[in-house]
Design a protein that fits this description.
This protein has 198 residues and is of the alpha+beta class. 44% of the residues lie in helices and 11% in strands. The chain has two domains: 1-51, no CATH class; 53-196, Aspartate Aminotransferase, domain 1. The protein contains eight helices and five strands; from the N terminus they run αααβααβαβαβαβ.
Length: 198
Amino acid sequence: MVNIGGFLAVNDEKLFDKARNMVVIYEGLHTYGGMAGRDMEAMAVGIAESVQYDHIRARVGQVEYLGEKLLDAGVPIVTPVGGHAVFLNAREFLKGMDQDLFPAQALASEVYVESGVRSMERGNVSAGRNKETGQNYRPALELVRLTIPRRVYTQAHMDVTAEGVIDVYSNRERISGLRLIYEPDYLRFFQARFEKIG
C-alpha cells in the first residue's frame, strides 16, 4: 500500500524510542524506511545522468547561481561553492553565538520559518556529545547545508531560497539560539527537539 516503510505499534514509550533509534542506524530516518523499486530506478537514472556533461553543467550552474546571489548580498558562505549544495557559514552569520546555543541549528530553523526552505545543520548538533563527560563536542565548523536535489528545482526556487536567507541575514541580530529539550540516544540531528531561548 505504500512506496516505502511500514508500521510498528507499541504501547511503551521507552520501547518506541529504542525502536525509532535503531531504525535510524539500520534503515534510515523512521519517516522514510527502506528503498522501493521506483526509488532504485530513479537512482539508476541519476547514475547514468551523472556522466552526462550537459546535465552536470546545469546542475553545478544552479548551485553556483544560488551561491553567487548569496555572496552578492554579503551572506557568509563556504567558497568555492560545491556541486550539490551551498553551505552557509553559521559561525560568521551569527558572530559571537556560543556553540552550546546551537548556531547552525538556530540558523536552519530561522531559514525554515522565514521561507519554508528546509536545510540541514552541520555543526554542534551533528557532532554530538561526549558520553563520558556529557559535554557537547565543539566542531570547528558550524554550517547549514542548502542541498539542491537533481531535477527538482527551478531558477525561481533558487531566487526564493536566496531571498529567504538574505532576509534572515538582514535580521540576524534577532536570532537568540536554541535549547535542547529532547535528545535521542543516536544521531541526534535527526530527532532532537529544541526550543527558542528568549
